[in-house]
């Protein structure tokens, strides 16, 4: 069995592949695979002509982030000890992959680890997606060291450590291959967004930890698939977040969280209406409605001796950010 497969998911990412694959080819020590989600551009031709050394898995249709990785990694099952999943819009640096795998090899109680993620556009700033490690508040709202809501910190060496976090960013993280398959991979119903947090919760339910290490650094462009202001992304985030919470919480706790989140998110939806963005209000409504229609099909987490999920260090990130005006992680 080989040590690690670096796996990149692609969908109509011709320009991303041409821009970012050279750094991955230059600085990576492990096997590189590309899973193509039935692209309709000439991505596959670009891979064949410009990167013939890479190994390709072609899927029959676009299964999204979650389904695409599930189907592709199923073909690699049993061949590697570890996977590094990395977006197609990521630039890597020297020893980025060795550092991630070295962390997991030395820390047997960790199921996954992410690198320090900086912005490819503003290279002295953290990236929105993951930054220096992600956390969840009591309502399961995600935030990061280096990014809370829409405020992004500059990288001034304040997070040059190795720590345990709540979740690792889907932009780039390494994990144990057998654990990925044992917990069922990504929830394919998510299609895209929040699926890495859901996976991390299931790993943690098994008693595994999630890590961040600044020994590995990457640069992420972000928004290559959906812009953060996209109604489609808002819809997916809301629907998938509710599905994730429903799977992980008891009935009474879930409905308490549901009501609080609904009040906050529909208030935000009214704000969208007032400012002339009805499509964003529709995204909020559709996210809740689609979850309610399908919730009976969602299976609760059922691991033997399932471990409780601790969240923190903040109970309500909204309160600290909006009311107490704490914009940076070190102020929390």
From TrEMBL:
The chain crosses the membrane at residues 253-274. Belongs to the glycosyltransferase 2 family. Residues 6-178 form the Glycosyltransferase 2-like domain. One of its GO terms (molecular function) is glycosyltransferase activity. Keywords: Glycosyltransferase, Membrane, Transferase, Transmembrane, Transmembrane helix. It comes from the Bacteria. It comes from Algoriphagus hitonicola. The keyword Cell cycle does not apply. This is Glycosyltransferase 2-like domain-containing protein.
